[in-house]
Amino acid sequence: MPDSATVSEAASLVRSAFDDSLWNHTLRTHLLAVGWAERFDHRFDREQLALACLFHDLGMVPPRRDPAHAFTFAGSRALRNFLQERGWEADRIEPAMQAIDFHMQFRPRWDLGATAGLLQVAAWMDVTGLRGRRLPEVVREARRRFDRGGFFLRFNACVLREIASPRRSLGLLLPGRFAPPGHPCGGAAELRGTSTG
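RESULT FIELD:
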């Protein structure tokens, strides 16, 4: 990950909240996202991508979990608060928030920017193997460096808890329409077309 004070502080915060299985998923996701960007020539903000990867599942764990809304919103809200405290401008915070809010979509949201597309591709690649054949050497390296032990069961238990609630499920499927009040998810973004770079 980028060698910056912001990323280091974020990593410490997230690491303290996660068990090994979720933490290693976070690291694999970042490695896969960077690998995809390099392989397919995506220009991206390295610090923004690292932070989106770090926070993307933070809403799954107590005390960050929000029983009324999808876990994605809790993670992006935590990221916003963290970055606002460090003086980041909204134009760098909001793409990272949208990347987290929309990363459970079935197709990458490249229309929301490189961070959103890369986070979705990488997170899904790590969980499901989707698109992994296009990046086999990076997938092998990610799994070699960051053990997957226990992750599949841990992650699926979290997802089952989300889909048990109709409101949380809708927040995952249609984040622009089912965001918490005041959340800057951007319903208009959901109405734009998707692409699958």
